[in-house]
Amino acid sequence: MPAIMPISDLRNYTDVLKEVDVSNRVYLTRNGRGAYAIITIEEADELDRLRAIHSVMADLKKAEARSEREGWVSDKEMQKEMGLED
Hints:
The chain has 86 residues and is an alpha+beta fold. The chain has three helices and three strands. The protein is elongated and about 70 Å long.
């Protein structure tokens, strides 16, 4: 369960950081509204990895839709285009 704390608690940041682990984020509020989240490096790395996967999958989906509209390129055409012809 995430911890929710006012941003003023950062004066004692070591106490706040003790609350953070892989299964527990700390949300900081300003004037009673959510403003920031503190997460572990591992969680940030996982979010970056998932963002990258999502981006690649979106690009692949666009490429597939375009190839369905405009047609696929054969292996021979691709080899010729890349200068790999025998």
